[in-house]
């Protein structure tokens, strides 16, 4: 190869690399995962139990067994990025294995919400305050014998506390609770006329 041919080949290869990089960058820009589009609100999302194919960050969720999984899904999102919020919960029973609630709800079915999450791009858009009441409705309709739902929250997380208190959760204390606990327990009780 002559030096002119080497320069020509090198020039072609570098422009191919730049084109590939530019194309890849454009693709990434088009499929920005879970980004809230300008003008979209919590009302534009679907709130429902998990369905096969629901995914976050390009990874599908596994079937929620034994947990229940309730999601806020963006129907317009790129495939693999539709879940922008979720509530995970699990059915429990008040007995010797769960003494914290046994005195208040003897031999009852309760639900523990173990996780509430909203994608950072969707925070402060009303997603959590729309999703959580709908998740409670879903629990009520799918588990009619449940009398209450509880969760733990960091008492210094003011935004989370405001959300839960707005959704009619109340502080729950039982004998032996230390008021300076790391996590506060909040309880949502279904109305007695709602309990079947």
From TrEMBL:
<feature type="signal peptide">
    <location>
        <begin position="1"/>
        <end position="19"/>
    </location>
</feature>
<dbReference type="InterPro" id="IPR016181">
    <property type="entry name" value="Acyl_CoA_acyltransferase"/>
</dbReference>
<protein>
    <recommendedName>
        <fullName>N-acetyltransferase domain-containing protein</fullName>
    </recommendedName>
</protein>
<dbReference type="Pfam" id="PF00583">
    <property type="entry name" value="Acetyltransf_1"/>
</dbReference>
<feature type="domain" description="N-acetyltransferase">
    <location>
        <begin position="29"/>
        <end position="192"/>
    </location>
</feature>
<dbReference type="GO" id="GO:0016747">
    <property type="term" value="F:acyltransferase activity, transferring groups other than amino-acyl groups"/>
</dbReference>
<keyword id="KW-0732">Signal</keyword>
<dbReference type="InterPro" id="IPR000182">
    <property type="entry name" value="GNAT_dom"/>
</dbReference>
């Amino acid at each position: 190869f002559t030096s002119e041919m080497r320069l020509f080949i090198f020039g072609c290869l570098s422009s191919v690399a730049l084109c590939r990089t530019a194309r890849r960058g454009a693709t990434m820009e088009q499929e920005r995962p879970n980004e809230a589009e300008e003008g979209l609100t919590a009302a534009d999302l679907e709130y429902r139990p998990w369905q096969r194919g629901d995914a976050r960050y390009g990874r599908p969720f596994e079937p929620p067994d034994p947990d229940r999984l309730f999601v806020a899904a963006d129907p317009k999102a790129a495939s693999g990025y539709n879940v922008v919020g979720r509530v995970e919960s699990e059915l429990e029973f008040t007995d010797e294995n769960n003494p914290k609630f046994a005195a208040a709800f003897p031999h009852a079915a309760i639900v523990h919400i173990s996780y509430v999450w909203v994608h950072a791009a969707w925070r402060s858009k009303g997603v959590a305050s729309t999703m959580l009441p709908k998740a409670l409705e879903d629990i009520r309709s799918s588990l009619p014998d449940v009398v209450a739902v509880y969760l733990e929250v960091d008492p210094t997380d003011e935004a989370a506390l405001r959300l839960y208190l707005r959704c009619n959760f109340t502080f729950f204390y039982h004998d032996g609770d230390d008021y300076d606990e790391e996590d506060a327990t909040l309880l949502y009780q279904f109305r007695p006329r709602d309990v079947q």
